[in-house]
Specification:
CATH topology of the largest domain: Ubiquitin-like (UB roll)
Order of helices and strands: EEHEEEHHHH
CATH architecture of the largest domain: Roll
Number of domains: 2
Largest sheet: 5 strands, mixed
Number of helices: 5
Length: 179
């Protein structure tokens, strides 16, 4: 089906599902999904990072698959389902990943955290019992300048256990003797 574009505005219609809600808007063809989420929809949890696809800060899921929203044109998302960090919690109830990150102090400045959580959520959806190496691999495209990643990996492990229904608790000590 050919997309109709308004000659006067240079914008084309876009319909997609964002965090479970259908959204209809008109966007310019060069606008990225990142720009649409932040500027047009006010979902600022998705962060601007390098805008070159190298840092993972802008990670969202598109039909359940983690993608870099800075590299995805908005119009390429027509009819697809987008999930951002704002869509993780259910009302006041945090998603297990959000709770684990908070409980373990896995988010320091927090800038990279939304992208990491969405990449981790997609991993756990496909593999409810990921190994540490699988977690490292799944998060390898998400850079964090504040941490040594240990707390992040531990938070993903803890959240995965909770999502499997286990009554897991944070470890008393990490590899570096921290808590």
């Amino acid at each position: 089906m050919a997309r109709r574009r308004s000659e006067a505005s240079g914008k084309a219609p876009l319909t997609l599902e964002v965090n479970g809600e259908t959204v209809e808007l008109a966007v310019t063809p060069q606008k990225t999904l990142l720009e649409i989420l932040r500027e047009d929809l006010g979902l600022t949890g998705t962060k601007h990072g390098c805008e070159l696809g190298e840092c993972g800060t802008c990670t969202v899921t598109l039909d359940g698959v983690p993608i870099l929203s800075c590299l995805m044109l908005g119009l390429a998302c027509e009819g697809k389902s987008v999930r951002t960090v704002e869509g993780m919690a259910h009302g006041a109830e945090l998603h297990p990943l959000q709770r684990a990150f908070a409980d373990l102090g896995a988010a320091q400045c927090g800038y990279c955290t939304p992208g990491i959580m969405l990449a981790a959520e997609a991993l756990i959806a496909g593999n409810p019992s990921p190994t540490r190496d699988q977690i490292k691999d799944a998060l390898s495209g998400n850079l964090c300048r504040c941490t040594g990643y240990i707390k992040i990996y531990e938070a993903v492990e803890l959240a995965a256990a909770w999502m499997r229904g286990e009554e897991a608790r944070p470890r008393e000590e990490s590899l570096y003797g921290e808590r």
